[in-house]
Amino acid sequence: MKKFIVIIVILLIVFIGMFVYRQNKITQNKNNEVTVDEINKIETYLQKIYMWKEITGEALPSFDNINNAPGVWIWEVVKKNLEEYELSYEQLEEKKKEIFGDELEKEFPKEGYEYMEYNVETNKYYAVGTGLDNQEDVFLLDKIEKKENGYTVQIIEFLEDYSEAYNTEQTEYNIQIKNLNDEIIATVKSTEDETNIQQLVKENIDKFTKKEIELKTDSNGNIYVTNVKKVE
């Protein structure tokens, strides 16, 4: 009889343990779910920092720490997100902090740089126009993993070549979908929906460059990039 009671107690303990574990697991999974609002917020932020390879070398360079990111990319990101093109040093530093947070220790070069010239007389910085090609640098969100203080995001990078649009008067023209090696992977019509392009990219994912981005969130819910690496 005592043995029977002991067995029942043991089974009860196991059952309670399994129940608690399951509840914790469900709670954990629920907390790790990425909402539509979070996806939109992540995509909006990445669009802010995604540049043009003909200006910055890579639309999104790889770096192990934001302070090791290429300077021209950092300052071009700042410039891209400016609402005006005549600014003081303080305004540039404020925009830098808004996009990259407090972890970025680099200061805007007081002498200016190639694409942001300094005028001694006005003590202002003036954005210089940059020439872009007919290829649009594009990324597609592939995976998002929610973490305690941020996200790990994987993107697919590709190019949309609109060269034909400038060589024809037709309303319908071809758009070439290329990888970063400038290899044509597919061709679509300009009248096709953007989702068709995204589907083509996903179907040929092994032919495109993939990058993993670590994003950090602060107490106010703001997102900042901390590092980027290429996924082999």
Question: Your description of this structure?
Answer:
By secondary structure, the chain is an alpha+beta fold. It folds into 2 domains: 55-127, no CATH class; 135-231, no CATH class. The protein contains 6 helices and 10 strands. The strands form 2 sheets. Strands 5, 6, 7, 8, 9 and 10 form a 6-stranded antiparallel sheet that branches. Strands 1-4-3-2 form a 4-stranded antiparallel sheet. α4 (71-80) packs across α5 (89-100). It is globular and about 50 Å long. The model is unreliable at 1-29 (pLDDT under 50).
Main attributes of the structure:
6 helices; 4-stranded antiparallel beta sheet; single chain; 2 domains; disordered N terminus; 6-stranded antiparallel beta sheet; 10 strands; alpha+beta
Q: How would you sum up this structure in a few lines?
A:
The protein is of the alpha+beta class and 232 residues long. The protein is built from six helices and ten strands.
Distance between the termini: 63 Å
Oligomerization category of the chains in this entry: single chain
Number of helices: 6
**How many separate domains make up the residues?**
2
* Structural class based on helices, strands and sheet pairing: alpha+beta
Strand content: 25-35%
What's the Cα radius of gyration?
24 Å
Topology as H/E string? Answer: HHHHEHEEEEEEEHEE
Record field, number of beta strands: 10
Stretches where pLDDT falls below 50 for ≥5 residues?
1-29
Average predicted confidence as pLDDT: 86
What would you call the shape?
A: globular
Helix content: 25-40%
- What profile does the largest beta sheet have? 6 strands, antiparallel
